[in-house]
Structure formats: C-alpha cells, structure tokens
Queue: 3 jobs
Job 1
Amino acid sequence: MLIVFVVVLADLVGGAGMIWLPLLAAGPALAATTNGPRGVLWVGFLAAVLGATLGARDGVPVRELAAVLSALLAVTLASGLASVLRGRRERVLAAVRSVAETAQHALLKPVPATVGPFQAAVRYSAAAAEARIGGDLYALIPTPYGVRLIVGDVRGKGLPAVGTAALVLGVFREAAYDEPDLLAVVDRIERSLARNLGSDDFVTVVVAGYAQEGRLEVVNCGHAPPLLVRAAGGVVPVEPIQPTPPLGLRALTGRTPGLQVLSFTDGDQLLLYTDGVTEARDRDRAFYPLVEGLARHLSDEPDRTLTALHDELLAHVGGRLHDDAALLLIRKPTVSEPAVAQPTTV
C-alpha cells in the first residue's frame, strides 16, 4: 500500500499520466511476499481504483488506460495465486519443523545439568537449519557400570545420516546398561553397523566411561581427540595410543580398538566434539581454534563455557555453520564445591 501511495503521489506532483500508472502493479506483486491472498486482492483493488481515477484525471486515452488496468488485474491475480502457494509451503515447512523437533528430542535427548558425579552441558547445531537435525550424535547416561557417554559423527548428511545416528544411539543405550566392559559396548555397535551399513558408510565415535573413582576410560574409533582440561590448568588433546578406524570399517583393516585409561579427578573437565566445530572456517578460510577458544572461555560451569564457545563459533563462521556440530562437556566438581544434586528416592 505504501508503494501504491508513493506512485499516486508522484503522479499528482508530476502529472505525468501513463509514465507512473504501470508502476501501480508493483503494489500487489510485492504484497504477495508478506500477505495472504485477501491482502493481495485488497491492494490490487485499491491500485485499480486509484489508477482509474488518476487516468481519468490526467486524460489518459481509454484504450491505454484499459490496457494498464488489465495488466494490473493480471498481476493481482497472479500475485494472489503466488500468495496461496507461499502459504501452503509455509504450512508444510512448519509441519516438517515440528516433526524434526520431535525426532530430535527422541534421538538426541536433553542432557541434565548433573549426571552421576558430573556437571554436564551440550550444544548441538545442525547444518540443515530448517530441519534442525543432522548426522552428529551424543548421549550421556548413568548405568550400573558408571556414567557412560558417546559423541559421534555419521558419514554423510540428510535422512540416511539421521537413521544411522539413531541406530548407533539405540545400540549404545542398550549395550551401556548390559555390558560391564566398555570395549564390549563398542563391539556391540560395530556388529550392528556391519549388518546395516553400506560398504562406504562409517561412523566416527568416542565412547567414554567412568566406572571407578578417579578413572576415566576412553575408546576412540577414528574420531577427533577429546580435550582434557586439568584442574591445575591447561588443555591437552587426548590422542589415541592405538589408532583405530571408524565403526563400520573394522572388517577392512582387522584392527580392534584399544582402551585408554586417564586419571580424572576433582576439577578436571573433558570436552568431546565433532569435526563440524574444528573444521568451521571464517571468510578467510581459517579453521576455528577450539583449543584456544576452550582455554579462553573455560569456567567452573560447563553450560556457561559451552554457551561462550558456541557463540564464538557462530561468530567465527558468520552466523551459520556448514556442517553439523556437537559439543559435550563434563566436569568433576571439587570437594570444596556444593555437592552435586543426586536424585532422591521416595
């Protein structure tokens, strides 16, 4: 409507007649981008009435004025149809988002602020922003054998990657409760993937477990090394002692994963992440420096640390990631801090 009134004002001031009247069609055309069909028709009707009035005022020949109004009518009808189609696409997109959010909550369940003896926090961003889910996976669960966690990255994107991530998480959650040995948990996932994945598909994962006080077990299958932060300070990548291929490719190499044991005491923290974080580039094609970023934003609250890291990561890439990215941080509180809340039994 603003555009229509600007055209009318220009015609009244300039008195140019046919020079300005065809521009009235811009009103209903642009209205289709934000309004429904009823709004488009009202703008078109208003433009037609004002166009006919101005044409008669300026002495525009009837034939030329009829041509302008016919074109205006055609644009209005076409814009109304475009508005209807846009509304349908928006409703479909809203339904897809709703389903995607439901699937994400079922697949990537929220991580509570405290799990067993740990403080914990998670940040996840899918590259497919409209779908809000992707091929990265994480889970952190208490089991009869201590707290166990997994972070992984499925090869590929889209629905096939989501399906594979769901398979890995389903097997992990079941095996983590059943198997006392962490390597047996990884073997269960490997066997399941071997039956269900194609020859070119694979999943990189880090699986960790805290079965004994002060002792953290880590199994790395082709994934980025976790970052260990000691209470005394310093960020150290936990490089695997025995390099192991990703899950799904063991049959090609014959290598089996090894168990790595780390001391993990009060005040220590462990960050697990996917390559969507470390391979995020800025406009100069520079990778995001995760080690430096973690050291810069480290705090005694994992949620605050990951919030600062995630915000800095998005700023580094200019607001939108081009690959799925997941961050999972756990921290063992010190004795001097308030006790970690434990669930009560009624």
Job 2
Amino acid sequence: MTIRYPRPLRPGDRIGVTSPSSGVAGLLRPRLDVAIKEIEARGHEVVVGRCMDGTTHVSAPAAERAAELTDMLTDPTIRAVVPPWGGETAIDLMPHLDFEAIGRAEPTWVVGYSDMSTVLTPLTLLTGVATVHGNNLMDTPYRVPEGLVSWLDVVAAPQGEPFAQIPPGRYRTGGWDDWTRDPEIRDLTLDGEGGWTRLDGDGDVDVEGRLIGGCVETVAPLAGSRYLDTSRFAGDEPLLVYVEACEDNAFTICRHLHGLRLAGFFDRAAAVLVGRTNAPDSPTLTQREAVLDALGPLGVPIIADVECGHVAPHLPLVNGARGRVVHTAARSEIVQTLD
C-alpha cells in the first residue's frame, strides 16, 4: 500500500468541521466560536456541518454522522476536516463510512485524537491516506509550546521536507480549563516537569519506521477486524507504533494491549511510543507495568511519556509518515517526513 498525502493546506482553503462522535453543548459554543476564528485568522474558510448537537454523547445518528464525514472527505473544495473533540462511540461509524469512495477521492486531511482514533487509524489503513493524530479543534487556540508544532502547521508542511519535534519538558499534571468561564483562554497550564522515559531498559534509541497508532481504549475494540489490519500497510516497512491511554485503569489497559498484540497490531513494530497518561494505576499494577507486561515480549524499544495523548501539550503524529525517533540521555526528538 502506497501512502498518499493530501496536498499542503494553503491560505484560502476550506476546512470542514463536523462531529463524528460527540457534538458541542450550548455552554461550550463560545469556545467553538473562538476556535473557528483562530482558523479563519490563518486565512481559511470554515464550513460547519449539521452533525454538531451536544445534547447526548453523539452529535447525530451514526448513518448521518458517517454520511456527513464521507461527504466532506469526498468534496474537492474541502481540504481538511477537524472535529471539535473526540467522544465515546465513533466505532458505530465503521459499517456506514464509504471507505471506497473516500479512497477514490483526492486525499483530504483528517485531524483529531481520542475517539477520533477510531476513524483516523482505519482511514489510513484502508485507504492509504495519511491522517493526523493531533490537536482537536477546541484545543487549537492554545499557544504551542516551544519544540512542538500545531496541527495547522503539520497539514501545511511541504511534502518530502522533514519536520522535527522535541519534548518541551513540561506537561499538565491534571484537570481541564473551564471553557464556559473563559472561552478565550490561550495559555496552557503546564505545571509538571519531565521528558520521555525508556521503559524496556537502558541505552540509546535511534529507530525509523512508518507511524501508526491511536488511543488504546478506542482502537482496541477494532483488533482482529479489517479496520485495524496492518498486514498490508506500507509494504514490509518497519512501523513506529504509538498508543496512549485516556482513562481506563491499568488492568484494562493491560488487557487491551495484550489483545492488540495477539491480533498482530505490533507485529512489525520497530519501537513503541506510549503517550503520557493520567489514567489510574490498579492496586498491583501501574500503567507502565501494564505496558511492559503486554508489550515487553516484543523485544523492541518502548518509550513512554510521549506528548501524544490526553495529557497536554500535544505532539501531532501523522499516520503513514516516515518517522525517526531518537532518545538518549541528552536528546529526545521525533522527525517526520511526508514521503
């Protein structure tokens, strides 16, 4: 399977906003407006879809959400699609999404994380179109810490030119900003200090491969299905597989990771990147121990506390991109190339 990249986003391009999972409640609409204005300030036109209702955990029935997403991804005038955030049950879109039509269309960027992994990862695996595991729309107004890049910069990156990101050494220890009280907030609270950690042993890491991964809780239910089949992905190239836990305890994460490994998701992994998490430990098992229990048998480097999950800040990763990960006592870096 050849990886296909949407063309770089340019000023004047249209960006679609839809909610493949959860919509936006009325009290949070001011933050949505701020986020849309942030994109418009970059010179883009924003097209807001119909599936945005935040009354329940889904913005509309599954068939309607899938149809709207498919329409946006096959509309040649829309160059990127970004949701307000994730949600809970985007898995119900799988039988309704027209992957064949999406695959035939000119590639369009899709961005997000959390429950959006349920959409992003299958899209790349089934169509070969690169997707961005990065900030959601509601996070977009935040100022990006030094060393990282915004999803808007990722989708505007020239194809074939590498871009590097380094951990800023700071992260949020817990909680969320109150967007109902201050929808304009742009400064992230990064009150913790720390960088990447190698879990499987000591020694320097310098490894390359194609990036693929997502949120453990939302992609694990796809294990063993065609939606998470990596066997044909990127030929026989090694993979850099990233995973991150949102909220499940260590026992549950351990079971999920074992299941993903047994289903072959890590078969070609040259290394595993694990997102920093605030998910709870279990009485006799920590989150790190859960990762090692399930993935230690792979015998590849496992690097934890990467900024690719539910703990701010966000380090966008492009599913399908060629990546190089370097981690030593003096330096941590990931370089991605869209080729």
Job 3
Amino acid sequence: MPTMADVARSAGVSVATVSHVLNGTRPVLPHTRQAVLDAVDALGYTPNTLARSLVTSRTRSIGLAVSAISNPYFTEILQGVEAAALAAGYGLLVADPHDDPAHERKVVQLLHERRVDGVIVAPSARPRDLVAYLGRHAVPAVFLDRALPAGDPSAGDPAHGRSPFDQVCAENTGPMADLVGHLAGLGHRRIGLVAGLPGLSTTEERVAGYRQALAAAGLPFAEGLVVSGHSEPAGAERATAALLSLPAPPTALVTANNAMTIGALRALRERELAVPDDIALCCFDDFAWADLFSPRLTAVAQPGREIGARAVSVLLERLATPGRPTRTVRLPCAFVHRTSCGCPERRDGPAGRPPAGTGGTTEPSAPLERGTAS
C-alpha cells in the first residue's frame, strides 16, 4: 500500500507539503498542489483518516439524528444531508432517536463519542437533556425541521430569547394558513385539524396557521375541532374517529403530516366516507404516492432535501466560524393543488413544476426563504 512518503517522492516535494495539500492546513502553490494530487491518483494512495484526525482534530464526519426509519419525510431530509455531506467531503453517521427524549440524548452522545465534527438533529418535543449535553460539551450542532422556541427554558437562553443552536426549518404557519384558507374559500365552516405531537414547534406553528386562517375567514375557533394525532398513523386514526363522532362533525379535514394522513384515510374508509364528496381532505406534507390516491391529495409540500442540504451548509459554516451568532433559516413550502379538497382537476394552474413523483399544480408559499439571527 503506498504511503505519504511515496506520494512525496513521486511529486518531488516534501512529506509536509503532501500533508498540507491533503489536509488543507496551509496554502500550497497551484502547480505543486496539482503535482501532489496527480501523484495520489497515479499511486492509488488512500489517506489514513484516523491519523489525519489526530493531526487536525477533525474526522470530516457529521452525525445525523432523525427518525428516518418511521417517517418518510425524514428520509428525504436524510438524502439531502447525505448528498451535501458527500459533496463537501464528509462522511455521515446516522442514528434514530425515535422521538424519545432519553434516547435522543443517548444517541447524540454516542455520535459525539465517535468524534464527529458536528451533529444535525431533529429534536424531540422535550429536548432539555439534549440541549444541556450539547451545550456542556460545546458540540457544534444544527437543529433541523423543528425549532427551539425563543425564550423557552429548554432552549438554554431564556433571558435573551436566543436559540443556542443554528436551526433550519420549513415555513409552517403561512403554508398551513394557505391550506385552511383554501378550504374556507370553498365554503367549509367546520374544518377539523388532526394536529401533531404536542410540544413540537411544527405542531404549534401549524396550529397557529390553522387559527390564523379561521380568523381571516371570519370563522370561530372551536377547540373540539383540533385533536392531536401524535404525529403517527394510529393516533391520527383515533383523532379522526373522534372528530367524525362529534354531534356536528367537520365537513373538511386537514392532517398535519404525511404519517397522519394515512391514519385519517383509514378512519374515513372504516366509516365508508368518500373524499371529497362526504368530506374534503388536505394534508401538510406531500409524499410520492399522494398523486396515486383517488381523489388526488391536495397538500403542502415541504422541501425536505433542501432542508437537509442547507443544514449541512449551515453546520460547515459553524465549523469554519465557531463564534458567529446563531441563526434560524426558514425555507418555503409549496401548495400542491389537486382534487381531494373538492376542486375539479386543474390543467392550467400557475407556472411551476410539482415535486418529483407528484402531480398537480404548485404555488410557492410566502414568505420565501429568510435567514434571521436568532
């Protein structure tokens, strides 16, 4: 197996110069750098990652903790993280925290003990222990999809209302308001919401969007029309059944994530209710097979891969400039208009291309991407 000394002899440079080229520890003249890279290719030299990490204190690896196995949306995020990390020359270690506060703290510690340079985490509804661990050990971290509410004691800096970590999330409030407002515009006056797991920022923001749309349409907020589906199919099935059992059941239903859409559809099928003839249905989260249902599901599509890729970019910026202020980046969603809301097929919608694997017309939700110091 060729060594760094072999590369140095082939390129006609010192071993130190080869080290600087491979590790990026000192500027090297372009022609010298190219000679080293040519020698690496010709000899088939593979750097010793462990030895390099001892010199640089970096392993060029990132830890990712998301519930990717149980949630197809997080699978898209994982793909975005993996592609961006690979493009930047970083490896990826993945762990599933199962949305359990104790388990998430444990898996993030295991990632940290494997000397990843930083971690990307979708935090649980109660991340106090996670936040404490990351802060105590000064682990570079980016929270994605779910934000820590400013001023929440679990966020670690309630006095200044600032998250201690960078965050990359989708817009939630405005897109949910667009979805509910669309149903209100179609004449629905009792719109049910199958909400997510209590305590998650995504749940709180989407409920806020629901209430915002009702207020804009002049409709009262009824607590009985909002039931938690706990962000999973079985919970959503129970929540939908509860809504349908009300003395005055909703005429339209919104599910707050893709997993809960499955549960809601099961409950509707159990009662032999047809969508949209008996009840309209819209969902927050588009997914690949939403266009295959009959009727086709009207949805808000989140930019999962873009969120994953941006989280890597923000983490790498944090590694390069550790002392800069934290920030929260919000990416826009798209309204994907199909037919489960009760509208006829649209063939002449606004310009825009639906996400891969889906049909319908897309409309970007406002506001567009923004980065804010938080």
